[in-house]
Amino acid sequence: MAISSERVEELLRTFRESLKAKGFEIYPFKVGWYNAVLTAAHHLQYPADTLAVLVISTPAMFECAFLPFLQSQSCESLRDPIDQCTAHTLSACISLCFANQSVDVSYDYEMLPSRKPKFLAQTAAHVSGAAYYYQTSDIHNPPWGEKMFGVCVHPQLGGWFAIRALLVFRDVQAGAGFQQRDPADCVCTQEERIRLLESFNLRWRDWSYRDIVPAEERYSDQQKQYFITPPGQRRALLRQWGYLTDTQS
C-alpha cells in the first residue's frame, strides 16, 4: 500500500533529526523521478513509486561526526576515513530508526561490476530537490569547444557540501500525494552559470565555485586543510593532528 506524504515525513522524522545532529541532510524522492531522466542503463531496479532518500553532508559533518568518529573508532587502513565515518554513521542511524524496514544503501564511491557507479549522485541531488545540477545544457551558447562537467549547487550551502549516499526503502511505496519539488535555481544568469562551470572545471582547487552563491555555512580551515591534502597523504595529516595511532596507519 502506498503511503501519504505525511506518512513519509513521519517515517523519516527521527532519522532526519539524528543525521542533522551529525551534520547530514536527507532528501526523499521516488525512484521513478530519477529513472525518468536517465537511460535504462542507469535505472534503479525498483518500482517507480519506491521511496528513496539522498544523503548529503554539510560543513558541520567534519566537526560533528568525522572528528568524533576518529576519536572513538578504529579506522581500517585500506578505506578512506571519511567514507568509513559516513558508513558508520548511517548504519547506526538506520539500525536505530528502521529496524523493521528493508533498506538498501549505496554510497557515492561504490561501483557496479560493470564499473558504472551504483547511482548518479548529482542526478539524484537534482530530482530530490537537494541541489540544482548545472550542466552545459543550461547555457544557451556555451563558449567552450569541449564539454564541461556539471556541478550541483545547494541554495543555502552553495558548493560547500558533498553527496554521500542513497537509501532505497524496498517495501515502501510513496503515494500520489508525495509530489516532486524542483531544486532551487540559485545560479540564475547565463554569465553566472558560465563562471560556475569554468570555476569547477578549470579552477576547482581554489574553491571559488563553492561560493557562486552566498553560503550559510562553509568548511572550517581545518576541514579545508584536510580536503586539499592529496588522499594518499591524509592519514599522515590525521596522525599529525593526533587522531590516528601508528597501528591505524
TrEMBL record:
Record EC number: 1.16.1.6, 2.5.1.151
Top-level division of the source organism's lineage: Eukaryota
Reactions accelerated catalytically: apo-[alkylcobalamin reductase] + adenosylcob(III)alamin + glutathione = S-adenosylglutathione + cob(I)alamin-[alkylcobalamin reductase] + H(+); apo-[alkylcobalamin reductase] + methylcob(III)alamin + glutathione = S-methyl glutathione + cob(I)alamin-[alkylcobalamin reductase] + H(+); 2 cob(II)alamin-[cyanocobalamin reductase] + 2 hydrogen cyanide + NADP(+) = 2 cyanocob(III)alamin + 2 apo-[cyanocobalamin reductase] + NADPH + H(+); apo-[alkylcobalamin reductase] + an R-cob(III)alamin + glutathione = cob(I)alamin-[alkylcobalamin reductase] + an S-substituted glutathione + H(+)
GO molecular function, one term: cobalamin binding
Alphabetical keyword list: Cobalamin, Cobalt, Cytoplasm, FAD, Flavoprotein, FMN, NADP, Oxidoreductase
Claim: Zinc-finger is one of the keywords in the record: no
InterPro entries assigned: MMACHC
A GO cellular-component term linked to this record: cytoplasm
A UniProt-annotated Pfam family: MMACHC
Location, primary (coarse class): cytoplasm
Protein transport listed as a keyword: no
Cofactor: FAD; FMN
Subcellular location: Cytoplasm
Gene Ontology terms describing biological process: embryonic viscerocranium morphogenesis; regulation of chondrocyte development
Cited PANTHER family: CYANOCOBALAMIN REDUCTASE _ ALKYLCOBALAMIN DEALKYLASE, METHYLMALONIC ACIDURIA AND HOMOCYSTINURIA TYPE C PROTEIN
Family: Belongs to the MMACHC family.
The protein's name: Cyanocobalamin reductase / alkylcobalamin dealkylase
Species in which this protein is naturally found: Danio rerio (Zebrafish)
Gene: mmachc
